[in-house]
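cron nightly-structures :: item 1 of 1
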Amino acid sequence: MPHLHRPPCTRVTSISSPQSVDTQPSQPFLLDRRGPCPLPRLLPSLVALAFGIAGNAQAMSLSEALSRAMTHDPSYLAAIKSRDAGVEKKFQGIAGVLPTVVGAYDDGRSYRTKTNNAAWVKSTIDNRSYSITATQPIFDLAAIRAAQQGFQSAAGAEAGFGVARQEAMLRLVSAYFEVLNSQDALATTLAEKKAIGEQLEAAKRSFEVGTATVTDQQEAQARFDLITASEIRARNTLNIKRQALSILTGQPTPEALPGFKAGVSIPSPMPMVADEWVNQARESGFEVRKAFADAERNRMELTKQVFNNLPTVDVVARRTWAKETPTVSGEFETDYVGLNVTVPIFAGGLNISQIREAAATRDEFQHRLQAARLNAEQGAREAYLNVVAGLAQITALEAAEKSSRLALESNQLGYQVGVRINIDVLNAQQQLFAAQRDLSKARTDTLLAGLRLKAAVAALNPDDVDVVSGLILGQAPKKN
């Protein structure tokens, strides 16, 4: 049976993480025969120690990080150029039904040999000609279909850019939140290390005066060694996450990013009906729009290949200036206006094969469209459920944090009066810090799920990120 004891006057601290929503934590105190004596709060010094920054250090808000990423993220910049290239398909398709004008110039010499009274006579003639030809298709169904395909290609490029733009925003927010979570994990680890260190010192003093066994000291030492290893891991993780964020923003990540302020409230998704989000994602999601444009373009490709077997009719107008020297005719001009009819007859079976290929490709992209709609439904439903579950989890963890803090204070008080042992206090401390870490991650996960929900219905924009940035900075969302 463990030895119950009353150690000397020892600090009993109530530690709250940087993201605690409890705005009035219990005042730390210590007990001795003279009664309770208040101590300064421990958290501010721990946060400063965790971040290693001065009070006036330059921070970077989520909105600022997004603004920088929109001009430095290589994937996003590549998506812009991909969109610009895709939009040109529209103009290339239109060009196929508009007039074409071609100019030509020929300057050469010809050699003639003929008989003249049984003798061979050679002559040299210089040829020089200029021509300009204008052609206007008046019946070319394949060209008309190609022009329509160009519009679908441009629509697909715009939808693809919408996907890339939203992915860039989510990528930045995710990287920012990972830094926040790593930052909070380090701060909490340092706070836990500080508390365990104090408990270790108390156990050492109690053992020296004979009021505690060596077991208390060894248990506290083991916890201190483990938390030291956790600190090394937390620092390394934070450095890695900072570097990942720096790649997106193009600038070094500040030593400390602003975290959630006390009392922050995360809004619920509106409407609070999953099917409405799912239906909207199925109809208007950017992935669905892109898949629809691709399916339409390939459906038109089939009819275009069929139209390639039909005759085409063009109006052709040509003017030619020519000169031959030395000749009697000298210079002359020729004007030509007419119809050019082209009738495909046989191309070795190429057109028939292209029709079969286009039919298979059309069916392929119809299946891809159906898959995109199903994926959009699943993504929207998953994001919605994650938001709802996240909000419930935040409420539960806030309650768990408060109850864990009270449990820690009770165990510390019990340790002082001899009804609790050292391991009880250490376990209560670990439970409190675990609740605080889980609460911090639950908040970022829920906010990210909310942004993913908006992205699923093609509604995510920088204003939504600004709202989240305001929540992190403790600012109320602006009313429109």
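cron nightly-structures :: done
The first helix runs from residue 43 to 51.
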